[in-house]
Amino acid sequence: MPIRIPDALPATQALERENIFVMTEYRALHQDIRPLRVLILNLMPTKIATETQIMRKLSNTPLQIEVELLRTVSHEATHVSEDHLETFYRTFEEVEHEHFDGLIITGAPVEQLDFEDVDYWPELQRIMDWSVENVHSTLHICWGAQAGLYHHYGINKHELPAKLSGVYEHYLVKRSSPLVRGFDDRFYAVHSRYTEVRASDVEACGELEVVAASEVAGLYIVKSVDSRQFFVFGHPEYDTDTLRLEYERDVKRGIDPQVPANYFPGDDPAREPLNTWCSQAQLLYTNWLNYYVYQTTPYDIRLAGRIARAKAGLV
What we know:
Elements: E1 3-5, H1 11-17, E2 22-24, H2 25-29, E3 36-41, H3 47-59, E4 65-70, H4 82-88, E5 89-90, H5 92-95, E6 100-105, H6 121-134, E7 135-141, H7 143-153, E8 158-172, E9 186-196, H8 199-203, E10 208-214, E11 218-224, E12 229-232, H9 242-252, H10 278-294, H11 306-311
Parallel strand pairs: 1-2, 3-4, 3-6, 4-5, 6-7, 7-12
Antiparallel strand pairs: 8-9, 8-10, 10-11, 11-12
Pfam families: HTS
Subcellular location: Cytoplasm
Family: Belongs to the MetA family.
């Protein structure tokens, strides 16, 4: 949350130069406040685990948030009951005439397929097109980030020689970005994927900028210059044991997976993993909500998405 200080306090300019959000008394007194509406498009097969993980990150903030869950109807979910979906999830047809402050598009275990070969790709394209005018800010996670870059900017993914799985050290490329406010110079983040987006492709696009990356894991955070689209190629929502469960699942399938890097002490799967990414993961979600949703979304929810497009000369 911002700090509220007197309008003419000398510290105001110094704090603003450091990208610390300061709210003057005038703005605080004239501020309209309402709950934020956040829509989660959950593409993961483990829907209950994923929705719990993401809501845990969204809840650790003083902001009041109304969360809606969205599913695709062009893909039959097999790891969750239809009763759960019918009770707690909505379809695109049910929300397409509504507006949201934020949208989160999760990852999905379909990286090794071409985007056009994913059975719900046409439906996902409709949702991403709709979000441009009906959502103020969108956060894409892992495969969702790759799908978003491909759909909005034509940047394709590339298959890796082997699955990238583990906890990797990262560095800040754009230190001044409020999205990484409070991050250490070097921090750890989880990756679990078979494909990557190359930094050179992102850097060649004038509408995007890299915020954080890793010497080993590659890109971690990319954002649009207009600060409406965010792409995170790791899994900041993962619990301590999520990578272990994935590893054990792959072992049972006979895939002979590599042990997740820098995850088990001594790289020994018999030992309890250590969580070294939780603090930055929480900051990522909190900063996105605070700086790129709460502080900039219009009070009239019906204008979400449209104001930003109007400023960019797109409407």
